[in-house]
Amino acid sequence: MLEFITNTDLNILLFIQDSIRIPWLTPVVVFITSLGNAGIFWIVVSLLLLIPKRTRRIGCMSFAALFASLLLNNVLLKNVVRRIRPYDLCDMLHPLVVKSVDFSFPSGHTGSSFAAAFVLYRQLPKKAGIPLLLLAVLIGLSRLYVGVHYPSDVFVGMLTGLGSGYLAERIVLKYGR
To answer: How many CB atoms neighbour CB 1 within 10 A?
Structure first.
């Protein structure tokens, strides 16, 4: 079963590389994927939300979601599953960004993006929440385009991110002042 999933994942990545990558789109996607580096975009948004008193609780929720995603994805799951990156398994796959030294499963970029974006979508007005959720989707998809994650890594990163966001929101609403 794992071999089937890996082969399917690799075929999807090779299809993206051979059929969807186009020169004018590549720098745009590389920029989008860089927004997820170390969760920096989401950290900055969360910090900005801490400034006005009326959005401080939302900023705390977003930080809690990012922290939960970090623990679940980067500390726990990556080190338990230890899945190698797709470009290390398939010589025909050429990543468009610097190769990562950590494990592949799940996607930390996707997890942190969905963790923060889920909270922000639910707590902010929709005119702000919808674009942020869309950005999380784009960051997740960008990880496939640049060839550094399997589709299943991104899918599970999305699920763990949503779960982290939900958990953080519940905890801050229940225990936060």
So the answer is: 5
